[in-house]
Amino acid sequence: MKIATRYLVRSMHLADIPQVLEIERESFPTMWPPTAFRRELQQNRLANYIVIVEHNPSAPDEASQPEKTPGALGRFFGEIRSILGAEDNGPLPPVDQRAELLVGVVGVWMMPDEAHIVTIATRESHRRRGIAERLLIAAIEMAQARHQPLLTLEVRVSNEPALALYEKYGFEQVGRRHRYYSDNHEDAYILTINSVLTRRFREMFEPLRADHARRWGDFQQAVL
Length: 224
Description:
Elements: E1 7-11, H1 17-27, H2 37-43, E2 47-55, H3 72-84, E3 100-110, E4 115-122, H4 131-145, E5 151-156, H5 160-168, E6 172-177, E7 188-193, H6 199-216, E8 220-221
């Protein structure tokens, strides 16, 4: 049975940064400093970030909302944040009042000899809804579109759900980084798919992608 969705898979925009930071804080609460997403999007030619957006048709029309004019102190701190390149632009509207709610993000660096997944995270309220798997599918599709055969990532050795997902899509353990994570010095497995361009991989991948669509509904996808 196909489940209707309101999800869109698209490239990350600068305006998405505050919501992506929300997801990062939920997923990696001990991570410091936070990812410099503005620099990643504007200056890192290797970086490609994809987000999944949930549309909320019942959200108030932003254009019809009265514009709040900041006072002198608010303008001063706004200018300081701009000078310092701050990523967070202050408090966001409540979740149920956002026309677009970002529910997941994946970052892929397209390096000369591999595509490397640097982060993958899902909003806590939307876990176990196929979001993380769809982000992984998008990362694989991007590697294929860029003709990059090798796809790699690191994952905590204790993260059994993630390990099961990656194994499902053909990742193999090729190494271990000792004390890789700074919060608790946990090791990381290095996982790799040798070639996402081969016929053998595509014959495994296509049914998995189709099964995800049957279970969770078709996620509309913009050109990445």
